[in-house]
Amino acid sequence: MKLPTKPRAREIDTRKYVFTVYGSPKAGKTTFASHFPDAIFIATEAGTKFVEVNQITDDDGEPTVINSWKQFKEAVKMLITVEHDFKTVVIDTVDNASDLCTRHVNAENGWSHESAGEYGKGSALIKREFKTVIDALLASGLGVVFITHEKQGEKEDRGVKRQFTDVSLGNSFKNYITGASDFILYCYRNSKGERLMLTKATDNVNAGDRSGKLPAIMPLDYQLMIDALRAATEPTKE
Question: Maximum Cα–Cα distance for the chain, whole Å?
Fold first, then answer.
């Protein structure tokens, strides 16, 4: 038995935060998210095939890709109501989840497109359905990571147009997801092939770090991110 020689490092509980992780294909988003504590994936595309992750399974115990809004809702309900040891839910991708929700609401109402609903009713119903399910997940006490893709476009600021990289969700979904997120991390590879992430917004890229503790650019590495957050919360010695 020994006495400690220095204070124990402060733990960073990622369950208190919501992360949006986005970038180009093969940027390393899924691998990065797989290192979150006791993560389980709700996979809406086959992006986890070559990454060792816990994933929602079918009735035979085989990893399954969620392909309907009903399945997605069942997966979320199970994670909220059934006792388990998972601490982080990764939705990969939230783009596909929003598409499943849109198709579900349109089909229920006999619409070919949400614009068929009167006076914006279609879009409002879809947003309400999506928000109800995600709000329940966000309130569950589990950590949440949204994975999405990037899209290139233009942004105008005081009459000046410039290229802008943003999450690929439609505006109503994007505003809700990014608004709920404490961290918006843009993942990319530099000219040397190194995987990096941008944590602070620039004139040309959407990103964000409500903690204000991460470097603006850092390696796409979960443990390095946690180390940076932990170091920023350590008390300074007089």
Answer: 72
Q: What is the pLDDT at residue 26?
A: 87
Please count the other Cβ atoms lying within 10 Å of the Cβ belonging to residue 201: 14
Whether the CB-CB separation of 96 and 44 falls below 8 Å is answered with yes
- Contact (CB, 8 A) for 66 and 75: yes
The Cα 91–Cα 102 span in angstroms is 16
| pLDDT by 10-residue block (mean), the chain, 238 residues | 64 89 93 96 82 87 93 97 96 96 93 73 91 97 97 87 93 94 97 96 96 96 95 59
Q: Do the beta carbons of residue 39 and residue 91 sit within 8 Å? A: no
- pLDDT reported for residue 106: 92
In the structure encoding, which two tokens stand for residue 167, read together? Answer: 């999450």
Query: Which residue, 192, 187, 182, is CA-closest to 220?
Result: 187
Residue 132, token pair as written in the block: 């109800």
202, 39 Cβ separation under 8 angstroms: no
Instruction: Identify the pLDDT of residue 86.
Output: 96
Count Cβ atoms within 10 A of the Cβ of residue 230 and give its class: 0-12 exposed, 13-18 middle, 19 or more buried: middle
Which has the closest alpha carbon to 169: 29, 19, 18, 22?
22
What is the crossing angle of helices 94-108 and 121-138, to 10°? 130
